[in-house]
Structure to design on (132 residues):
């Protein structure tokens, strides 16, 4: 359960998170919402988006992002681990007793509550502007 600590680790985790989103297209605000589970630094957020674009993970069109599909969705059976304990959701800040953690090659991200884990991975839409 190692949290990314260096700027480079956070950048890699952010790019990998974007690569695993289940939405084909989303607005920039929704992408930033997901990246903010890793960092709240505007400069690092910008660097994550730039790196993802340079590596072909996303295409940016104004305030919209198109995620290139590579069949790399988060596999809930193998990449999401639930742990019991006293946690604070990394996305919304709510106290939770079951934390859901995403296991990615670049590191582990979490904890998240049951609804936030679905929003972070893109399984659940956050707003009508995200609907396809």
């Amino acid at each position: 359960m190692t949290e990314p600590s260096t700027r480079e680790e956070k950048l890699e985790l952010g790019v990998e998170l974007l690569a695993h989103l289940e939405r084909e297209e989303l607005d920039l605000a929704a992408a930033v919402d997901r990246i903010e589970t890793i960092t709240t630094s505007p400069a690092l957020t910008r660097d994550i988006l730039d790196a993802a674009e340079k590596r072909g993970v996303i295409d940016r069109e104004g305030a919209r992002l198109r995620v290139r599909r590579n069949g790399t969705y988060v596999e809930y059976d193998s990449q999401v681990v639930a742990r019991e304990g006293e946690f604070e959701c990394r996305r919304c800040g709510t106290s939770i007793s079951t934390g859901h953690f995403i296991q990615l090659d670049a590191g582990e991200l979490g904890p998240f509550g049951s609804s936030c884990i679905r929003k972070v991975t893109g399984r659940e839409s956050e707003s009508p502007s995200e609907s396809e």
Residues 7-19 form the longest helix (13 residues). Residues 127-132 have pLDDT under 50 and may be disordered. Strands lie at 25-27, 58-61, 64-67, 80-88, 95-104, 107-112. Residues 108 and 119 are 17 Å apart (CA to CA).
